[in-house]
Amino acid sequence: MEVIIRPNADAGCVLGAKVIAKLVREKPDAVLGLATGRTPLRLYQELIRMHRDEGLDFRHVTTFNLDEYVGLPATHDQSYRYFMRENLFNHINIDQSRTHVPDGTAPDLHAECRAYEKRIVAAGGIDLQLLGLGRNGHIGFNEPSGSLYSRTWIKILSEQTLRDNSDVFGSLAAMPRHAITMGIGTILEARRCLLLAFGPAKTRAVERMIEGPLAAICPASALQLHPRATVIVDESSASGLQYADHYRWIDANKLAWQRYD
Ligand code: F6R
Question: Which of 33, 88, 230, 253 is the most exposed place for a label (fewest CB within 10 A)?
């Protein structure tokens, strides 16, 4: 796992955007796996800026989002389809027909899960999967104790996740309790993973993901198995890492081609 520590979330997101921009410049028809939530917002703003000021071209890019709440239509302002339109798709030159978010209102949710997997395969697989990190160690909506081989499926959200995400729904009761999410097995098949985690609320999860044992109780620890996983953290989320100096040493001694900035 490549661990990069930046002073703050802003610097981490700008670096994350550079990783994605480099890929899109090298491979204009790249397939990106995307995430929602608070963490990638600044990264998306930076991609929008790069599109506007530097001509970063998304015309041939295809995207697959990690997850969607069950029962929320694309028009619902808390649906992840809505989030992606508002925070990225409407501000870049992406062909919206190339953007994929699981349909949480599909009449047959199991069929939708299977079809989502097939769509990813038909697109040639995901070149880079962007991820955030739940306080309980989830990635996508793969909650603790789920299978590390799981595929896209319907998951029950944990109480912690409900509490963490309910503010935007107004109340806990108004929040969906189920989501369609890519599985851990699906995520691990991406050719590259890029996870961002910032702030003191993520310190413990970051520590467990990077330095803890590989364990289903911390789903993000599965990234230890991935041949090309990059984790960008800030000083506060990295504050529990025992080997922080080692990660800084590696970062400081990278060859020019191994750097993103
Ligand atoms: C979002 C997702 C989740 C979030 C995680 C962190 O698509 O899959 O795993 O990345 O819950 O959320 P934030 O960024 O809001 O702290």
Answer: 253
